[in-house]
Amino acid sequence: MTFPPPHLVLRTEAGDRYLPLVGSNCWTIGRGRDNTFILTDRWISRNHAMIQKMDTGDFYLVDLGSRNGSFVNGRRVSIPITLKDANHLLFGETELEFHCPNLEMDIESGIDADDSQDFTATLHVRRLISVMVMDIRDFTVLTRKLDERILSEVIGSWFRQAGDIIRNYGGWVDKYIGDAIMAVWFHGAEGVNSTEMLRIFQALRDLHEVTKELSKTYPLPFPLRVGAGINTGYAMVSNAGSTERSDYTALGDTVNVAFRLESSTKEIGMDIALGEGTYKYISALETNHQKFQEYKVHLKGYDDQTITYAGTFNHLNNFLGRKLLSKKNLNSY
Length: 333
Hints:
- By secondary structure, the protein is of the alpha+beta class.
- About 30% of the residues lie in helices and about 30% in strands.
- The strands form three sheets. Strands 12, 13, 14, 15, 16, 17, 18 and 19 form an eight-stranded mixed beta sheet that branches. A six-stranded antiparallel beta sheet has the order 2-1-11-10-7-8, with no helix packed on it. A five-stranded mixed beta sheet has the order 4-3-5-6-9.
Protein backbone atom coordinates (compact mmCIF):
# COMPACT_ATOMS: atom_id res chain seq x y z
CA MET A 1 0.00 0.00 0.00
CA THR A 2 1.36 3.42 -0.95
CA PHE A 3 0.77 6.32 1.44
CA PRO A 4 0.87 9.99 0.50
CA PRO A 5 3.81 11.81 2.14
CA PRO A 6 3.26 13.98 5.24
CA HIS A 7 2.11 17.43 4.23
CA LEU A 8 0.42 20.68 5.19
CA VAL A 9 -2.69 22.03 3.48
CA LEU A 10 -2.78 25.84 3.34
CA ARG A 11 -6.30 27.25 3.26
CA THR A 12 -6.55 30.41 1.15
CA GLU A 13 -9.34 32.34 -0.56
CA ALA A 14 -7.91 31.25 -3.90
CA GLY A 15 -8.06 27.60 -2.89
CA ASP A 16 -6.01 25.00 -1.03
CA ARG A 17 -2.22 24.71 -1.42
CA TYR A 18 -0.30 21.48 -0.79
CA LEU A 19 2.97 21.88 1.18
CA PRO A 20 4.90 18.57 1.33
CA LEU A 21 6.99 17.76 4.41
CA VAL A 22 9.70 15.80 2.60
CA GLY A 23 13.41 16.06 1.77
CA SER A 24 14.38 17.31 5.23
CA ASN A 25 13.54 16.87 8.89
CA CYS A 26 13.02 20.55 9.69
CA TRP A 27 10.73 23.10 8.05
CA THR A 28 10.38 26.75 9.14
CA ILE A 29 7.31 28.96 8.73
CA GLY A 30 7.22 32.76 8.68
CA ARG A 31 7.17 35.98 6.66
CA GLY A 32 10.94 36.03 6.13
CA ARG A 33 12.32 34.87 2.79
CA ASP A 34 14.70 32.46 4.54
CA ASN A 35 11.82 30.19 5.65
CA THR A 36 10.83 26.89 4.07
CA PHE A 37 7.23 28.05 3.84
CA ILE A 38 6.75 31.80 3.39
CA LEU A 39 3.37 33.13 4.51
CA THR A 40 2.44 36.69 3.55
CA ASP A 41 0.34 37.44 6.59
CA ARG A 42 1.09 40.67 8.48
CA TRP A 43 0.18 38.98 11.76
CA ILE A 44 2.89 36.36 11.28
CA SER A 45 6.42 36.95 12.60
CA ARG A 46 9.47 36.88 10.35
CA ASN A 47 10.50 33.56 11.92
CA HIS A 48 7.25 32.29 13.38
CA ALA A 49 7.33 28.53 13.90
CA MET A 50 9.09 25.31 12.98
CA ILE A 51 7.99 21.74 12.31
CA GLN A 52 10.61 19.08 13.08
CA LYS A 53 10.45 15.37 12.33
CA MET A 54 11.93 13.14 15.03
CA ASP A 55 13.60 9.74 14.69
CA THR A 56 10.39 8.10 15.91
CA GLY A 57 8.52 9.48 12.90
CA ASP A 58 6.66 11.99 15.10
CA PHE A 59 6.33 15.60 14.01
CA TYR A 60 6.73 18.42 16.52
CA LEU A 61 5.52 22.00 16.22
CA VAL A 62 7.86 24.52 17.86
CA ASP A 63 6.83 28.16 18.21
CA LEU A 64 9.90 30.34 17.59
CA GLY A 65 8.94 33.16 19.94
CA SER A 66 6.34 34.64 17.61
CA ARG A 67 4.55 37.77 18.76
CA ASN A 68 1.01 36.49 18.09
CA GLY A 69 1.58 32.83 18.85
CA SER A 70 1.07 29.47 17.18
CA PHE A 71 -2.10 27.46 17.80
CA VAL A 72 -2.98 23.78 17.44
CA ASN A 73 -6.71 23.03 17.45
CA GLY A 74 -7.32 26.44 19.03
CA ARG A 75 -4.79 26.02 21.83
CA ARG A 76 -1.68 28.18 22.00
CA VAL A 77 1.64 26.33 21.84
CA SER A 78 4.06 27.26 24.64
CA ILE A 79 6.42 24.28 24.40
CA PRO A 80 7.04 21.84 21.53
CA ILE A 81 3.94 19.75 20.89
CA THR A 82 3.45 16.50 18.97
CA LEU A 83 1.25 16.92 15.92
CA LYS A 84 -1.53 14.46 15.11
CA ASP A 85 -3.06 13.71 11.74
CA ALA A 86 -5.67 16.31 10.72
CA ASN A 87 -4.58 18.84 13.39
CA HIS A 88 -5.65 22.40 12.61
CA LEU A 89 -2.81 24.94 12.81
CA LEU A 90 -3.19 28.70 13.06
CA PHE A 91 -0.41 31.24 12.50
CA GLY A 92 -1.65 34.83 12.60
CA GLU A 93 -4.75 34.73 10.41
CA THR A 94 -3.49 31.84 8.28
CA GLU A 95 -4.99 28.38 8.73
CA LEU A 96 -3.28 25.12 7.79
CA GLU A 97 -4.01 21.44 8.30
CA PHE A 98 -1.37 18.87 9.15
CA HIS A 99 -1.70 15.45 7.53
CA CYS A 100 0.52 12.44 8.18
CA PRO A 101 -0.39 8.90 7.12
CA ASN A 102 0.24 6.07 9.53
CA LEU A 103 3.59 4.60 8.50
CA GLU A 104 4.26 2.53 11.64
CA MET A 105 3.74 -0.76 9.79
CA ASP A 106 6.25 0.22 7.10
CA ILE A 107 8.83 1.34 9.64
CA GLU A 108 8.56 -1.88 11.66
CA SER A 109 8.39 -4.41 8.84
CA GLY A 110 10.50 -2.71 6.19
CA ILE A 111 9.58 -1.03 2.94
CA ASP A 112 7.77 -3.07 0.38
CA ALA A 113 9.55 -3.41 -2.93
CA ASP A 114 6.62 -1.84 -4.75
CA ASP A 115 6.99 1.31 -2.65
CA SER A 116 10.77 1.66 -2.96
CA GLN A 117 10.47 4.80 -5.05
CA ASP A 118 8.37 6.55 -2.41
CA PHE A 119 10.68 6.16 0.58
CA THR A 120 14.37 6.29 1.39
CA ALA A 121 15.55 3.09 3.06
CA THR A 122 16.82 3.52 6.59
CA LEU A 123 20.54 3.00 7.09
CA HIS A 124 21.98 2.12 10.50
CA VAL A 125 25.67 2.62 11.15
CA ARG A 126 27.85 2.71 14.27
CA ARG A 127 29.44 6.14 14.66
CA LEU A 128 31.59 8.00 17.14
CA ILE A 129 29.55 10.94 18.37
CA SER A 130 29.35 13.57 21.08
CA VAL A 131 25.92 14.23 22.58
CA MET A 132 24.99 17.41 24.43
CA VAL A 133 21.80 17.64 26.47
CA MET A 134 20.89 21.07 27.82
CA ASP A 135 17.94 21.73 30.12
CA ILE A 136 16.34 24.91 31.50
CA ARG A 137 16.38 24.88 35.30
CA ASP A 138 13.16 25.36 37.33
CA PHE A 139 11.04 25.35 34.18
CA THR A 140 7.93 24.09 35.99
CA VAL A 141 8.14 27.00 38.43
CA LEU A 142 8.58 29.36 35.50
CA THR A 143 5.39 28.11 33.80
CA ARG A 144 3.42 28.85 36.97
CA LYS A 145 4.74 32.37 37.41
CA LEU A 146 4.98 33.61 33.83
CA ASP A 147 2.27 34.76 31.45
CA GLU A 148 1.72 32.13 28.74
CA ARG A 149 2.42 34.59 25.91
CA ILE A 150 5.75 35.67 27.38
CA LEU A 151 6.65 32.06 28.18
CA SER A 152 6.05 31.12 24.55
CA GLU A 153 8.26 33.96 23.33
CA VAL A 154 11.05 33.13 25.75
CA ILE A 155 11.16 29.41 25.00
CA GLY A 156 10.71 29.93 21.28
CA SER A 157 13.54 32.46 21.18
CA TRP A 158 15.77 30.13 23.20
CA PHE A 159 15.10 27.21 20.86
CA ARG A 160 15.73 29.33 17.76
CA GLN A 161 18.99 30.85 18.98
CA ALA A 162 20.20 27.57 20.45
CA GLY A 163 19.62 25.82 17.15
CA ASP A 164 21.59 28.48 15.29
CA ILE A 165 24.53 28.20 17.70
CA ILE A 166 24.65 24.41 17.53
CA ARG A 167 24.56 24.41 13.73
CA ASN A 168 27.23 27.15 13.54
CA TYR A 169 29.60 24.93 15.52
CA GLY A 170 29.06 21.85 13.39
CA GLY A 171 26.34 20.13 15.44
CA TRP A 172 22.80 19.00 14.74
CA VAL A 173 19.71 19.49 16.90
CA ASP A 174 18.31 15.98 17.20
CA LYS A 175 15.44 16.74 19.56
CA TYR A 176 13.51 19.55 21.21
CA ILE A 177 12.04 18.11 24.40
CA GLY A 178 9.82 20.52 26.29
CA ASP A 179 12.45 22.63 28.07
CA ALA A 180 15.52 20.79 26.76
CA ILE A 181 17.60 20.28 23.63
CA MET A 182 19.60 17.26 22.49
CA ALA A 183 22.39 18.02 20.02
CA VAL A 184 24.78 15.65 18.25
CA TRP A 185 28.26 16.09 16.77
CA PHE A 186 29.65 13.40 14.46
CA HIS A 187 33.33 12.43 14.56
CA GLY A 188 35.59 10.42 12.31
CA ALA A 189 36.60 6.83 12.97
CA GLU A 190 40.09 7.97 13.95
CA GLY A 191 38.76 9.77 17.02
CA VAL A 192 38.13 13.34 18.15
CA ASN A 193 40.76 16.04 17.74
CA SER A 194 41.08 18.98 20.13
CA THR A 195 39.62 21.45 17.62
CA GLU A 196 36.39 19.44 17.32
CA MET A 197 35.96 19.18 21.07
CA LEU A 198 36.71 22.85 21.64
CA ARG A 199 33.97 23.79 19.16
CA ILE A 200 31.48 21.83 21.24
CA PHE A 201 32.59 23.64 24.39
CA GLN A 202 32.38 27.00 22.60
CA ALA A 203 28.81 26.15 21.58
CA LEU A 204 28.08 25.34 25.23
CA ARG A 205 29.45 28.70 26.36
CA ASP A 206 27.46 30.57 23.70
CA LEU A 207 24.29 28.74 24.72
CA HIS A 208 24.82 29.89 28.28
CA GLU A 209 25.40 33.48 27.15
CA VAL A 210 22.22 33.46 25.06
CA THR A 211 20.28 32.19 28.07
CA LYS A 212 21.62 35.05 30.22
CA GLU A 213 20.66 37.61 27.57
CA LEU A 214 17.08 36.33 27.49
CA SER A 215 16.84 37.02 31.22
CA LYS A 216 17.69 40.65 30.50
CA THR A 217 15.26 40.91 27.58
CA TYR A 218 12.09 39.57 29.22
CA PRO A 219 10.42 40.41 32.56
CA LEU A 220 11.10 37.06 34.20
CA PRO A 221 10.48 36.24 37.88
CA PHE A 222 14.07 34.95 38.15
CA PRO A 223 17.09 34.65 35.84
CA LEU A 224 17.08 31.70 33.48
CA ARG A 225 19.62 28.99 34.27
CA VAL A 226 20.65 25.94 32.30
CA GLY A 227 22.53 22.73 32.97
CA ALA A 228 24.25 20.46 30.48
CA GLY A 229 25.56 16.93 30.10
CA ILE A 230 28.05 15.96 27.37
CA ASN A 231 29.03 12.42 26.52
CA THR A 232 31.27 11.02 23.77
CA GLY A 233 31.21 7.45 22.51
CA TYR A 234 29.86 5.11 19.88
CA ALA A 235 26.16 4.92 19.04
CA MET A 236 23.90 3.54 16.37
CA VAL A 237 23.13 6.36 13.98
CA SER A 238 20.17 6.23 11.61
CA ASN A 239 20.15 8.22 8.39
CA ALA A 240 16.53 8.33 7.27
CA GLY A 241 16.94 11.34 5.04
CA SER A 242 17.21 11.77 1.31
CA THR A 243 20.35 11.70 -0.79
CA GLU A 244 20.21 15.50 -0.88
CA ARG A 245 19.95 16.05 2.86
CA SER A 246 20.80 13.64 5.65
CA ASP A 247 18.45 13.15 8.58
CA TYR A 248 20.47 11.78 11.47
CA THR A 249 19.38 10.48 14.84
CA ALA A 250 21.36 8.58 17.46
CA LEU A 251 20.37 5.80 19.83
CA GLY A 252 22.15 3.84 22.52
CA ASP A 253 23.97 4.02 25.82
CA THR A 254 26.07 7.05 24.83
CA VAL A 255 22.87 9.05 24.36
CA ASN A 256 21.22 7.73 27.53
CA VAL A 257 24.25 8.63 29.65
CA ALA A 258 24.26 12.19 28.28
CA PHE A 259 20.69 12.68 29.55
CA ARG A 260 21.55 11.15 32.92
CA LEU A 261 24.68 13.30 33.25
CA GLU A 262 22.62 16.44 32.72
CA SER A 263 20.31 15.33 35.54
CA SER A 264 23.31 14.62 37.78
CA THR A 265 24.40 18.28 37.70
CA LYS A 266 21.54 19.06 40.08
CA GLU A 267 22.73 16.34 42.47
CA ILE A 268 26.32 17.63 42.65
CA GLY A 269 25.47 21.33 42.40
CA MET A 270 27.31 21.98 39.13
CA ASP A 271 26.32 23.36 35.73
CA ILE A 272 28.12 20.92 33.44
CA ALA A 273 28.82 17.19 33.69
CA LEU A 274 31.15 15.41 31.24
CA GLY A 275 31.28 11.71 30.52
CA GLU A 276 34.62 9.94 30.77
CA GLY A 277 34.78 9.67 26.97
CA THR A 278 34.41 13.44 26.57
CA TYR A 279 36.87 14.27 29.32
CA LYS A 280 39.47 11.96 27.77
CA TYR A 281 39.65 14.24 24.74
CA ILE A 282 40.15 17.43 26.75
CA SER A 283 42.21 16.14 29.66
CA ALA A 284 45.46 16.81 27.81
CA LEU A 285 44.37 20.43 27.41
CA GLU A 286 43.75 21.04 31.11
CA THR A 287 46.34 22.83 33.22
CA ASN A 288 47.63 21.65 36.57
CA HIS A 289 44.72 23.50 38.12
CA GLN A 290 41.95 21.40 36.64
CA LYS A 291 38.74 23.21 35.75
CA PHE A 292 36.61 20.04 35.76
CA GLN A 293 36.73 17.97 38.94
CA GLU A 294 36.04 14.24 39.24
CA TYR A 295 32.81 13.08 40.90
CA LYS A 296 31.11 9.73 41.35
CA VAL A 297 27.38 9.87 40.71
CA HIS A 298 24.46 7.45 40.65
CA LEU A 299 22.81 7.64 37.24
CA LYS A 300 19.19 6.53 37.05
CA GLY A 301 18.92 3.04 35.59
CA TYR A 302 22.58 2.14 36.25
CA ASP A 303 23.61 -0.15 39.11
CA ASP A 304 27.18 1.07 39.58
CA GLN A 305 28.43 4.55 40.24
CA THR A 306 29.54 6.53 37.20
CA ILE A 307 32.56 8.81 37.06
CA THR A 308 31.87 12.30 35.73
CA TYR A 309 33.97 15.44 35.45
CA ALA A 310 31.94 18.48 36.36
CA GLY A 311 32.23 22.22 36.73
CA THR A 312 30.42 25.54 36.49
CA PHE A 313 30.10 27.90 33.55
CA ASN A 314 32.78 30.05 35.19
CA HIS A 315 35.08 27.03 35.08
CA LEU A 316 34.19 26.59 31.41
CA ASN A 317 34.98 30.23 30.63
CA ASN A 318 38.35 29.97 32.37
CA PHE A 319 39.14 26.79 30.48
CA LEU A 320 38.19 28.26 27.12
CA GLY A 321 39.94 31.55 27.81
CA ARG A 322 43.32 29.89 27.30
CA LYS A 323 42.55 26.93 25.08
CA LEU A 324 40.00 27.95 22.49
CA LEU A 325 40.92 28.87 18.93
CA SER A 326 40.12 32.42 17.87
CA LYS A 327 36.51 33.01 16.93
CA LYS A 328 37.62 33.86 13.41
CA ASN A 329 39.11 30.40 12.97
CA LEU A 330 36.10 28.72 14.51
CA ASN A 331 33.68 30.51 12.21
CA SER A 332 35.62 29.28 9.21
CA TYR A 333 34.47 25.74 10.02
